[in-house]
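I am writing to request your help with a piece of structural work I have in hand. Thank you for your consideration; the sequence and its tokens are set out here:
=====
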Amino acid sequence: MHSISNPPILRLPREILDEVVRYLGSKSMLRFCRAIPQLNEYAEVLFDAATALKNTTYSISLFWPTFALWSSCSDQIFRNDVALTRLGALIQRFNGTTSIDGGTFPGHRISQLCSITSKNISLYTRFLKDKNEVRLWADQVVLHKKVVVCLELYHVYLSNLSLSEITDSVVDLNPIELVCEANEVILSSLEVCTRLRKLQLVKYDVKAETRLRNPPLSAILPRLQNLREFELKCGKKEVFLDIAMVLPITKIWKVRFEFFDERKRIYNYAIRRPTYLGDEEKDLAGLLVKAGFVYKPVSWERSLDEDEMEKWKPIGGFWYRTCQ
């Protein structure tokens, strides 16, 4: 019989205990690592980082497994860079990510931020502090050999950079996932992004793309050989049909199409429920099914029919490829 003072979990190999830590949230990770002597050092690192920012708006959930860096706490962040650098190293050990609201930090702080963070970062650029922000980040990300898990571009119209300069910066950042409006980068140049696996175009303006003399999306997507997931918001259903026709010659296995009516002026788009195109769109569905895709709803809406019987209607979902 095992001694109560020496429970079996304490005899597990460190590798197995580390696997458990990988799936824990902040509070659970802290309690678990405090209870296991071999893991006390992990708890100490997390506790020290949380203590360093204890008088800020940070909660413990923002430290693990993803560490969020906000400029509202920049003074405390840079005063306690040793404790936070240790946290960044721990997150890196478990292949976690540091999420950075980059657009709210001044450019001269970017190098120091890269020194603090884990190797994997998610970057949200806003061009609010520095008009050439994305270029500043690209230079430091390359220098510090970071991996950009997700890059989101906002307020690009505020930038002093040209379209080609922004595109070059995005290419240098080489993100795994890119979220932007279609006319904010030269999409055809993304084929040199060797890591790009997911592309989310939050707006595709056909007239703007034509004015910029960019090739249609249906010509660009087959050239993005590493792309596996694609999401598009557009006001022309013909664009979705064109894309569906070329999907068989791509390696994309997951798509989502969101339609918005260009004839209606929308002042607060963020709170309007999106219109995702599913299998009710017969022409589109026919092309996607022929290409080996099936539609799987992920959200539903409850309603009553004429006999006041409850029914559920799918209002959002993805198309998944079932065969290659």
In short: The chain has one domain: 66-261+269-303+311-321. Residues 267-271 have pLDDT under 50 and may be disordered. DSSP finds twelve helices and eleven strands in the chain.
